[in-house]
Amino acid sequence: MTAKYATGSCYYCHVKKIKPEMFQTNIEIKTGRSSGSWGLGRSQYGKKRRKATHLRYNAGRTYYKNKKIWCCRECYADNHPSEAGFKSQRQIRNERVKREEQKKYNLKSSGEKAIKLIKLVKKYTNNNPKVFNQKNLSEINTSLNNITKAIENTNDYEKIDEAISNCKEIFYLNCPNLKIKLLFRFWNSPIFYSIIIIWLLIFSIKNF
Ligand SMILES: [Zn+2]
Q: Which of 64, 66, 59 is nearest to 34 (CA)?
């Protein structure tokens, strides 16, 4: 013996289900709209509170009424998210896709950052052979290799970011020349430091 349940059809997708699997809620539906009209209006204005008569447009009103509806689980979550308190399969899927896209984007931008940093480090070490001793260079090269390994072996952008910040740290520690250190710092985030420099310039001109 199976219990017989009343069935209902979903207000949104029209699927037919037994009522215990459906959700009931209220929606507002438009029942009509009164048309706008022109009329005379009087307002007071100015210091002497003069009265003026002018033509005024009275906007029409839209009328609503509440309607009780049945809907399926998916449509309930989609159309009444705050009330439902759970997510529809589609929402879960969309969120997963978004997360994957974000991960891909992060991975790509971390990879680009890493390549830029490697070029920058090589530029400074190659162009200033007298500044760095053998030990400095070997430490710096190890950190560069760690970045390359991170790019090749992982899909985890955080590992690449970690290798990037380690490499920067190692470069600062192993660069004995202050000017090169500052230039390196600047070219790592040129936009950020440009804004700070411009801001400082404006500040100092104002206070001159
Ligand atoms: Zn539905």
A: 59
CA of 11 to the centre of ligand 1 (A): 7
Q: Is pLDDT larger for residue 182 or for residue 35?
A: 182
- CA 85 to centroid of ligand 1, rounded, Å: 16
Residue 10 · residue 80 · CB < 8 Å: no
pLDDT at position 1 over 60: no
What is the C-alpha separation between 159 and 114, in angstroms, rounded?
11
Distance 78 CA to ligand 1 centre (A): 9
Q: Helices 89-127 and 178-188: crossing angle, nearest 10°?
A: 150
For the chain, domain boundaries: 7-86, 103-206
Give distance in angstroms: CA of 79 to centre of ligand 1.
Answer: 10
What stretches of 47-156 show up as alpha helix (H) in DSSP? 73-79, 81-84, 89-127, 134-153
C-alpha 93 to ligand 1 mean position (Å): 17
Place of tokens 């070490």: 125
Q: In 11-88, which residue ranges form alpha helices assigned H by DSSP?
A: 73-79, 81-84
Out of 38-42, 111-115, 188-192, pick the least confident.
38-42
154-207 tens-digit pLDDT = 889 999 999 999 999 999 999 999 999 999 999 988 999 999 999 999 988 887
Task: Say how many Å lie between the CA of residue 86 and the centre of ligand 1.
Answer: 15
